[in-house]
Structure formats: C-alpha cells, structure tokens
Amino acid sequence: MSTGPPPSQLCLLSTLPLKQVGDKVRFLACVSSYSPVHAILTLEHRLSGDACSVLALVDVNLILERIGANQTRTGEWVNVIGYITDIAPMNDGKRAKGGNSKIQVQALLLWSAGPLDVQKYTASVRALEC
C-alpha cells in the first residue's frame, strides 16, 4: 500500500473542465501571457474542430526558482503537473464540454515541451482518454 501522493492524470487542456477541484493533472499548453507580479501563466491549447475554449491560469509561485524566462515566453509550449484549484465559466455560465472555462492550477512542475508535433500529441492523448 502506497502512502505517496496520487499520480497525475494526463489530459488535454480542453478536458480540464470535466475534472474536479483537487485533481492532480498533467497537460501540455501554449503560453499566451505571463504576469510576473502575480506569477500566473495563462495557457491555452486551441484544437481545430473544438468549440470549447479553455484557459488555464497556472500559479507558478511554488516553483519560481526552478523556471526560466523561456518557460514564461509567449508562444512557448510547456508541460504542467499540478492541482486544479478552481473551475469557473468565462462568459456564458456553462461548465461543460461546450462552454468556455477558466481553470486555475497550482503548478508543482513545469518544463518546456521542446520541439513536438502538437497534432500527434493531441491524437495520442485522445486515444488514451477513450
């Protein structure tokens, strides 16, 4: 019997609204902005054909000394492992796959994705989720 922390759940950013506050998740997303005052990264991963618009607001205060400027640069693809701290609708009040959501995440780890084929990654993760 293990008493360690729970493993993270690999998922797409677009499926985070289906998770619960307190879930430990791992996802890939693109930096759209960074607030150095609050140490909050805004991440997105727009998928062609998806009506869902999801933003992740990732709090990096716990890992500031371990991340570099390249991981907060707009356009950089990063991997995140962390806990969901809040799930909120953006505009229309819906919290479902078809609604727009802002997901707040407390980051435990964050690292650059490096060169990758985002379409292949997305297809691989979707295949795992089924």
Automatic annotation (TrEMBL):
Which GO biological process annotations does it have? telomere capping
Task: Name a GO CC annotation attached to this entry.
Answer: CST complex
Q: Name one Pfam family in it.
A: Ten1
Kindly give the InterPro entries that the UniProt entry links to this protein.
NA-bd_OB-fold, Ten1_fungal
Q: Mind listing the GO molecular function terms for this protein?
A: single-stranded telomeric DNA binding
Renumbered to this chain, the signal peptide range is none
What superkingdom heads the lineage? Eukaryota
- Record protein name field: CST complex subunit Ten1
Source organism: Canariomyces notabilis
